[in-house]
């Protein structure tokens, strides 16, 4: 199969995965598009090196993670600390919810998605990496192949990331 | 059996070679529980995890025009290759010009010296450029665990390249001025305008390079601060 046909097929199949990973690392829409193009360019360059026995999904995800990790390392973190509209909304909602429902669960879907992204972007880089892949439904084995770490370490990092994320979500 | 000697704790006896190993091993066996650390109910985490996964996977995203993406990617690839090819061809052309001017046309000495030094500097630039471009083109081969170290190395290589351009500016000032004085004197033409033009060109080149130097230095500091977190 020709390179550009294969590239098109890969990008179409994994577009959702790539877009989700990108928004987990970058909030700015213009930069998200730049990152998508950067990842696409790196996938194109990597095409000739792809081994047929490897999984395309993990190959594509690894390229995306390398681009995103480099981007995060170069960017000054500008996580908002002042309460945003989500927080205000959450504050009002928390007065009405029962004790069993967490503040996160009390939000509507759109607000939950925004809140989730906001909190993921505040995690440490290695926690961001495992959590975004796990949220995409990847197995420990797949995550370990993407990040080139042991399955044990995936478990350790994921547990820490989940705990940190839950704490951030609960903190509101 | 003493619990510390249990096979379950076998990992604690392994000498730690890498940061990753250390993290895994310490986490499993040896880290004492901090009594003052906030404890999180794992059932809350698990309960919320299912909801988070669902929210994450149902996030809306902008569909990409694949034909436009393919076209744009090809264009970017070709542009990068063309730039590199242009630099290589330019360098070869400079060196050929020196040979041609010396052996066939017997050009004036100042021209030959000027072209010779320019050709030598051009070889250095091209070598650096190839090194930097290859490093950025092979991003997919980097182990994600070493990505920050790789970003630091790339940034340092870019800074070296910038320093080389700055250095060549310093070298160009006397060289270009000397060349212009020699040539203009031979042709008996006014000296001021060509001197002003060439020095302004070097100044602009230096200022642009300095801007990128400051920018890259800031970027390097940022990456280093990230790696030490």
Description:
The complex is a heterodimer of chains A (172) and B (229). Chain A is mainly alpha-helical and 172 residues long. Chain A has helices spanning 3-25, 29-46, 56-74, 85-94, 103-106, 109-120, 125-135, 140-147, 151-171. The longest helix of chain A is centred in the first third of the chain and has 23 residues, at 3-25. Chain A is globular and about 50 Å long. Chain B is mainly alpha-helical. The radius of gyration of chain B is 29 Å and the shape is elongated. At the A-B interface, helix 1, helix 2, helix 3, helix 6 and helix 7 of A face helix 1, helix 2, helix 3, helix 5 and helix 6 of B.
Please describe the structure with a list of short key phrases separated by commas or semicolons.
heterodimer; A: 172 residues; 9 helices; 73% helix; 0% strand; globular; B: 229 residues; mainly alpha; 6 helices; elongated; disordered N terminus
Helix and strand topology:
The complex is a heterodimer of chains A (172) and B (229).
Chain A: H1 3-25, H2 29-46, H3 56-74, H4 85-94, H5 103-106, H6 109-120, H7 125-135, H8 140-147, H9 151-171
Helix pairs in contact in A: 1-2, 1-3, 2-3, 3-8, 7-9, 8-9
Chain B: H1 19-30, H2 42-57, H3 66-104, H4 109-137, H5 147-187, H6 192-227
Helix pairs in contact in B: 3-4, 4-5, 5-6
State Rg of chain B.
29 Å
Principal-axes shape call of chain A: globular
Figure out the total of helices of chain B: 6
What are the secondary-structure elements of chain A, in order, as H or E? HHHHHHHHH
Helices and strands of chain B: which structural class?
mainly alpha
Question: Briefly, what is this?
Answer:
With 172 residues, chain A is an all-alpha fold. Chain A is built from 9 helices and no strands. In chain A, helix 1 (3-25) runs antiparallel to helix 2 (29-46).
């Amino acid at each position: 199969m020709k390179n550009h046909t294969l590239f098109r097929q890969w990008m179409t199949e994994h577009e959702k995965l790539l877009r989700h990973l990108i928004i987990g690392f970058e909030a700015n829409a213009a930069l998200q598009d730049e990152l998508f193009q950067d990842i696409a360019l790196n996938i194109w360059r990597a095409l000739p090196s792809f081994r047929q026995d490897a999984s395309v999904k993990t190959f594509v995800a690894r390229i995306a993670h390398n681009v995103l990790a480099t981007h995060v390392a170069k960017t000054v973190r500008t996580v908002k600390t002042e309460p945003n509209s989500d927080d205000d909304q959450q504050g009002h909602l928390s007065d009405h919810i029962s004790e069993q429902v967490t503040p996160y669960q009390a939000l509507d879907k759109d607000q939950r998605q925004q809140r989730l992204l906001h909190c993921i972007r505040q995690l440490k880089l290695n926690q961001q990496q495992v959590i975004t892949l796990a949220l995409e439904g990847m197995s420990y084995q797949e995550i370990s192949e993407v990040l080139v770490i042991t399955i044990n370490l995936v478990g350790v990092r994921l547990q820490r990331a989940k705990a940190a994320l839950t704490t951030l979500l609960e903190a509101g | 059996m003493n619990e510390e000697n249990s096979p379950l704790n076998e990992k604690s006896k392994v000498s730690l070679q890498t940061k990753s190993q250390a993290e895994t091993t310490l986490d499993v066996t040896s880290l004492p529980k901090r009594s003052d650390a906030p404890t999180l109910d794992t059932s809350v985490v698990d309960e919320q995890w299912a909801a988070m996964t669902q929210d994450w996977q149902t996030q809306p995203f902008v569909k990409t025009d694949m034909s436009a993406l393919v076209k744009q990617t090809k264009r970017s690839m070709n542009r990068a290759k063309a730039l590199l090819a242009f630099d290589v061809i330019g360098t070869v052309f400079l060196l050929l010009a020196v040979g041609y001017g010396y052996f066939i046309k017997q050009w004036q000495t100042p021209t030959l010296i000027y072209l010779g030094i320019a050709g030598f500097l051009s070889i250095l630039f091209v070598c650096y450029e190839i090194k930097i471009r290859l490093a950025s083109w092979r991003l997919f081969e980097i182990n994600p665990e070493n990505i920050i170290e790789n970003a630091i190395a790339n940034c340092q290589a870019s800074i070296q390249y910038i320093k080389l351009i700055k250095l060549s500016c310093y070298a160009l000032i006397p060289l270009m001025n000397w060349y212009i004085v020699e040539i203009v004197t031979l042709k008996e033409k006014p000296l001021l305008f060509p001197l002003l033009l060439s020095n302004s060109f070097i100044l602009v080149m230096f200022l642009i390079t300095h801007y990128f130097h400051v920018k890259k230095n800031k970027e390097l500091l940022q990456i280093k601060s990230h790696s030490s977190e």
